[in-house]
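Onboarding guide, step 5: your first structure request.
Type a short instruction followed by the sequence, for example:

Predict the 3D structure of this protein.
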Amino acid sequence: MKHQLTVAVNNQAIAVERFLRVARHRGFRLTQLELKGHEELFHVKMTVDSDKPIYLLTSQLNKLVEVQSVDLHTLQQAI
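The system replies with structure tokens like these:
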């Protein structure tokens, strides 16, 4: 199932690398990524695909110190 996440993360290159590594280690395939930098935060919109429950990813992302917020939007699958 595809899910779209919007993540607010501290404006540090290492912070982006960390949350992308978490997605990979949890078994989610990144299909789209949009990153916009602001003064103190990066706003990252990403689409991931996996058969695994999305809470496995969102709960881990919320534990990262650099992550300020995670918003989830489930996308409709074409039949």
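Each response can be followed by summary notes, for example: The chain is about 30% helix and 45% strand.
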